[in-house]
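Title: Request for sanity check on Methionine synthase reductase prediction

Description:
We are preparing a figure and want to confirm that the structure record we downloaded matches what your pipeline produces today. Could someone re-run it with the sequence below and paste the raw structure tokens into this thread? We only need the token string, no images.
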Amino acid sequence: RMCCDLKRRFLLLYATQKGQAKAIAEEIWQQAGAHGLEADVHCISEMDKYNLETEKDPVVIVISTTGTGDPPDTARKFVKKIQDTTLPPDHFAHLQYGLLGLGDSEYTFFCNGGKTVDRRLQELGAQHFYDTGLADDCVGLELVVDPWIDGLWLALKEAFLLQKEKEGMSSDAVSSSLSAAPHVGHELNLSSEVQNLKLEDERVRSSDVRTQKLVDIHLVASTRDTEPSLVHSVPPVSQSALSIPALPPEYIEVQFEDTHGENPHLSSLISEGTTFEVPVTKAVQLTREDAIKTALLLELDIADTVFDYQPGDAFCVICPNNINEVEELLHILGLSEKGEYFVCVRVKEGTKKKGAAHPQHIPERSTLKFILTWCLEIRAIPKKAFLRALVECTSDVGEKRRLQELCSRQGASDYTRFIRDSNVCLLDLLHAFPSCKPSLNLLIEHLPKLQARSYSVSSSNLYQPGKLCFVFNIVEFPACPARPVSRKGVCTGWLAELVAPLLHPNKNTLDTKGGSSSTEKISIFARPNNNFHLPADPSVPFVMVGPGTGISPFIGFLQHRQKLREEHADWEFGETWLVFGCRHQDRDYLDELRCFLENGTLTHLKVCFSRDSSTAEVAPPKYVQDVIRLYAKEIARVLLKERGYFYVCGDKKHMADGVSDAVVDILSMEMEADKLEAMKILAMLREAKRYLQDVWS
């Protein structure tokens, strides 16, 4: 009698921005059943469905990170609630929890969403029943997520035993009712990458029959092909028995209706705030035709709207998928004739998916083409759960086996190399595996929401009232073995096509006088940046570092500053430094910067050109971080003596990290301190919001 009642419950909360944390929570929920456990799963925002104040069972939290280290939007209320300073230090003393944080080490505040919640729960007396895991999207979340989930079952089992001992009940019945979990030592520091790789290795060797299904070997690799590829494997993977994820239950059904009616307005797809449809009034190509990257400046007319911004803010553009790719997808799915038909999307009756709900980003009623164009990220890199579902839609034995390999534990490095790192999307997979014919409901279940794209503002409302400018490079994805066609970025490719008729003949300057007007409109919404703004006190000096299109927000800063200087001749203004880098002196150089220097808005302009060859005895600096080192004394003075600000904008991996390393070296040298001390100073500057980054990977 007692054993039957003991399907033990734990609370499982997830906080997601783009669906990753939710998918991982669903995987945990699914595996829990096989371990004789029941996960009570909720989005952390559903605060009416759970109560941590009275929660007696163990709690598992999966939480991602967004923006510059913020918790996801869905966790904002929860974080605000637990950060209430009036809460006593034993507020959560009854709580046992384990937390899995998701992040990307490309960004400064890695996993900060998870770390914030973890730290605060500890401060309020909550206890870990399992070590915190920090998974890194930069190297592959699964390197930490998989072993963390493996170790969770043993940790939960121990937490339940402890709980029962506290309640004074015999622990024998409990242990007999829990299925033994394979032992993966959960005392390991799961945020150590080396440890992750060891774990990964051990786990591949261990016999793994929990929720995975053992797949027989169908094929023997031919001796000709010794190199693996997207469609072809080599030993040991090709000869391994595979442990693959459980098949995710289907939960959506799609019904075709008629062709009458209207699609919803784009504003109904956005929950983040008010959308504005605004005309593009000007387009200027900033780079020459033979430049490696094409940079465009667009000007939007916001005069007839209440859209407001400060220099340094960002805003989002609602963009569609490429129409040719949508048509191609319809063709492969055999639905070319159905594109203009309205579809009704419902949750399947009797689905086994826990908490199945109508996806919020899919309208109640719209045409199939509208869904594929405006709602689903058809370029998304397919997750392993999607690959697992595609296996069932594939008829060719060889293709089926390869898809199984790519979603298996044994094929983890193949997945990383041929899918994740190659930026492969659903269309690429359908070309590579022609016998794979997925149903429409599968796409709606597995493709994430098409996200609006964020851009830094490159103008000042004070300097150009009623105008908003922004600068971007047209993103290029060159062809590669896994993807035989080259592609442009979803949004930058669409914008470039949209403004092609407008492009200004004068391409080497930010001079935006003249040009023809256009009736092309785009939908935008605000995404204010709370930190990346000019110092409130105009007498404070600051340094701006922005190579390439990273200069974008600084044009807005300088326009704003110029206007303030004109309007307030009696104010004291601090010195301003701009370190700008581009490829070639005769090509990408912006004349407007010279004007700021000549009229005194800019005190120091330091420029470097990474691709120009030099005949000078001492080669000039090639990169912005080299320039910074040349002016070490001045930069240290601005930061340390004059309490100035330091702004960095642009590419994260290849530039921003190099700049912060250079700043650490400068601080170390000028303060005559060791590197660790200098790193602490930089951390304090970040904390004080005086070292600010607007970076992208």
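Thanks, this matches our download. The chain has 20 helices and 24 strands.
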